[in-house]
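Write out the 3D structure for:
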Amino acid sequence: MVVFIIIIVLIGVGVYFYKSSSMSDPSEVQNRYKNRNDEQKKVIRYFAVDGCLSKTISDDQYNEIVKSTISKQDFKKKALEKIGLDESELKEIEPVHFEGWAYGNNISYAKRGKDGKWRSSAYQVSWLFFSSTQVYLYQNTIHFDKDDKKVSTEEYFYKDITNFSTSTDTVETPYWDAKQKKSLLENIDSNRFALTVPGDKFYCSLELNDYTERAIQAMKAKLREKKS
């Protein structure tokens, strides 16, 4: 009887570990593991695997992965090097930085966490610098489920800028549906800053807070001054 109970327990443990391993994940998810490092695989499982038997990282653990990656990089320095100007030339007002989750069709995953907040598999950091005649913008979008990254720079003359603004826009973004075991699209509200020029807008993801509010007001005041 004791031996029988032990066998049943061992089978149960084996089934648990099989179900909670990446080998039991949907084939589409397993395909995304290819050529990914261990941390990227953890991120993929966070977004794409669900259920009481699934061993995935928590919302807080994913937040920490993002925070740790961002804190190790000096994006302000990267921005100045990319722009090719000395900071002493960019003192019209204090440099401004925005950061936040990136959403859209070019993002692999989004997910509503247990805390009710949406997160995505990409995070965006933007820096804006202000000379006497131009605004320089640097943006770095980091993907945590793969090696892809997008770095872009733009520069605009004050005379060409029509507005600085913030908005909450609905952005269609892929998310993993655990029941259907496939990626679907979800409309997610995204906070974004927009630099507007005739016929175009340059968007930056951001978290709305006292800092971003003060920074945008300072930018608007400088734009009014330059156009007066």
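Helices lie at 2-19, 27-33, 38-48, 59-71, 75-83, 210-227.
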